[in-house]
């Protein structure tokens, strides 16, 4: 994989407060909260405006040229957290950069430990209006399903969304810590002959991979019924120390790429193969450049993009300002799987 440095001149600062900086891109405002002890009233005119994003955790560009943004609405998550707005999905048209819709999640979907930190989109070109988004709730072990056509969301629970108590120990960049994060990584596979699509998923603190049909998640009443329990399948175990945050299905190769946070690397699994430790590939590992690969995606040209950010050091120790702490790495999917079990 190769390094790529990304810069942007499309954003500009329009105001700075003691507690936050407001950046503007076109007609949209992004708030970055920096001080935990300042009153938020100074920024009310921006923070209560629907044209504001408080805290973006994940984004996803779909096949219909739309950008989905998961805004937690939460500032200073590691300090004295302030919920400036309910969690929401923000949807943009990538051709016009205009806001298509914003969906605020109802408070009934939120539990005491809820945290929405990812968004996965289930759609296909030619059927864009019937898109669904899946939002893992890693803190209270559920998945929120959003229907674009109905502009409505619902909560789905299952035992497989929970973390594995034997897989919560991490050693990353010389930092040892324990997490209990549940369902986090999700990927939508290719359409099957019956018109359905498999949805692959795993908890962050787990080494196991699961699958459920998208028709289950998209049917609110059935998904919430006891009958749906057995529609969820265990695919297998990736092996020791294979905890992963994000995963992504590459339709060209049939391979799921996933982060390997305990191995400073990126793994792969060809979905035509059984899932076990022997069928997993490690496409790259680097104890400097890939310390905590946090997110990854494959674009429509067959390029894998990986973001690493040394998050455990930021949380538990400190970042070294003299080092590169944030990196974007890229690689061609067909090239990086050569010589691995994923090359089938």
From TrEMBL:
Alphabetized UniProt keyword annotations: Secreted, Signal
CC per GO annotation: extracellular region
Cross-referenced Pfam families: MRJP (PF03022)
Presence of keyword Secreted: yes
Localisation per UniProt entry: Secreted
Top-level taxon of the source organism: Eukaryota
The keyword S-adenosyl-L-methionine is assigned to this record: no
InterPro entries attached to this UniProt entry: 6-blade_b-propeller_TolB-like (IPR011042), MRJP/yellow-related (IPR017996)
Family from the record: Belongs to the major royal jelly protein family.
Name of this chain's protein: Yellow protein
Source organism of the structure: Anopheles maculatus
Top-level taxonomy: Eukaryota, Metazoa, Ecdysozoa, Arthropoda, Hexapoda
């Amino acid at each position: 994989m190769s390094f790529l440095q990304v810069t942007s001149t499309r954003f500009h600062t329009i105001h700075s407060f003691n507690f936050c900086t407001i950046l503007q891109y076109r007609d949209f405002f992004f708030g970055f909260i920096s001080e935990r002890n300042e009153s938020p009233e100074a920024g009310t005119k921006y923070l209560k405006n629907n044209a504001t994003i408080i805290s973006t955790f994940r984004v996803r560009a779909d096949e219909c040229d739309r950008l989905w943004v998961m805004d937690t609405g939460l500032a200073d998550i590691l300090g004295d957290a302030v919920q400036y707005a309910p969690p929401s999905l923000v949807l943009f048209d990538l051709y016009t950069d205009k806001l298509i819709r914003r969906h605020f999640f109802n408070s009934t979907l939120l539990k005491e430990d809820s945290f929405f930190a990812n968004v996965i989109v289930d759609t296909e070109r030619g059927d864009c209006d019937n898109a669904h988004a899946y939002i893992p709730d890693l803190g209270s072990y559920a998945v929120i399903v959003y229907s674009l056509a109905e502009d409505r969301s619902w909560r789905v629970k299952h035992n497989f969304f929970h973390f594995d108590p034997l897989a919560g120990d991490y050693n990353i960049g010389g930092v040892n810590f324990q997490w209990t994060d549940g369902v986090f990584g999700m990927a939508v596979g290719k359409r099957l002959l019956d018109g359905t699509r498999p949805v692959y998923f795993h908890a962050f603190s787990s080494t196991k991979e699961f699958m459920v049909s998208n028709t289950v998640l998209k049917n609110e009443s059935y998904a919430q019924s006891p009958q749906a329990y057995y529609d969820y399948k265990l695919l297998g175990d990736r092996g020791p120390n294979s905890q992963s945050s994000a995963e992504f299905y590459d339709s060209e190769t049939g391979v799921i790429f996933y982060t390997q946070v305990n191995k400073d690397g990126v793994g792969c699994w060809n979905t035509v193969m059984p899932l076990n430790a022997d069928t997993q590939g490690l496409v790259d590992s680097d104890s400097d450049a890939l310390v905590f690969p946090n997110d990854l995606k494959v674009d429509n040209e067959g390029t894998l993009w990986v973001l690493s950010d040394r998050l455990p050091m930021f949380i538990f120790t400190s970042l070294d300002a003299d080092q590169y702490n944030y990196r974007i790495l890229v690689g061609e999917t067909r090239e990086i799987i050569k010589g691995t079990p994923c090359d089938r």
